[in-house]
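Forum > Structural Biology > Help requests

Title: Can anyone predict the 3D structure of Transporter substrate-binding domain-containing protein?

Hi all, first post here. I have the sequence for Transporter substrate-binding domain-containing protein but no way to get a structure on my laptop. I'd be grateful if someone could post the structure tokens.
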Amino acid sequence: MHTFRNRQRTGRRFSRLLPALVFAMVTVIAVAAAAQTGRQAPASGPAADFPDRELVVGTKEAPPFSMKQPDGNWTGISIELWRQIAQEHGLKFRLVEEPSVQSLVEATARGDYDLSVAAITISPERERSVDFSQPFYNTGLGIAVSLTRVSIWREIVRTMSSLGFLQAAGALIGISFLVGALIWLFERRHNEEFGGSAAKGLGASIWWSAEVMTQASTGHRGPRTLAGRALAIIWMVVSIITIAVFTASVTSALTTRQIRGVVNGVDDLPGVRVGALAGSATLGFLDRERIAHRDFDRVEDGLSMLMSGSIDAFVYDKPLLAWLVAQKFSNSVGVLDVTFEPQSYGIAMPTGSRYRNATDVALLEAIRSEKWKQTLFNYLGEKR
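Reply #1:
Sure, ran it for you. Structure tokens for Transporter substrate-binding domain-containing protein below:
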């Protein structure tokens, strides 16, 4: 009996402890499952899509977006942007330099680089060979011109050899010949001054027409018929007005060029000597507009030719052009206050890159930050 009672007491104690034991076992199982789930869950965010290795990033010198310092370090707007992205997402990378944008794009297309950052314009031609991120900077083309005073004699020669001048002069000469021929038809049988053989009569009448046009006639001869005199009066009035307008136009053009220069906007480019950077997106615009251009391997070479008078304008990405002029050519070259052919800069990647989405997300986050605004202000003085 005593043993039975002991067993009853033990059973009651066990029944009281059983819920606690079950709860403890459930808690241990839940914690273990949560830990296992945490170990298996993938990381989230852009960093998860980048490889856990050192990225190879291509670049080229394009001040102020990418600039190589004497000690080999890189600075610039694009470089600072990429460093910001890399720092925020814990990415390791090394920069490799290319000599030109064209070679940078080609190397990226081959897969030599995981990414390329500089001042790479997003264009249809480049989009065919590489993928681009979202744009991080929107700009356009600009025009650099010489600040050296234009030679008046050079402009006279340029004006007189221009297509517009030759067309106007040809039209005046043609009208003068036509009036002379009409005077000869009206006067050849009634005025001995315009009579005789056809060659003699036509020569005299055309000479008289030219004298009237230039207001150099002495008045010793003239038409005698009613039709001839009516035509002469009309021609005198028309020629006076035409010569006055023609002279005023030429004088105005020469004066304007002396004061403002040869190039004042995009519309002036077809009639002047234009320079551009070889392999740049600028060439696409110039070719589409059928503007003849001379290409240079470096922007500095083109600006030097602009200073010497070998070319009249240099067309390139406006922020890069403005930066370089301000740093090295501020006393002799200026950038016009015009922006055309809108374009955007982006980060280039090999076609089908698995980093594209991650780069887009990281880039969009970066350019919305205060740090990016400060970077633009530090390099360009822009407040966005």
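The longest strand covers residues 137-146. The chain has four domains: 1-41, 46-136+346-380, 145-150+263-342, 153-260.
Shout if anything looks off.
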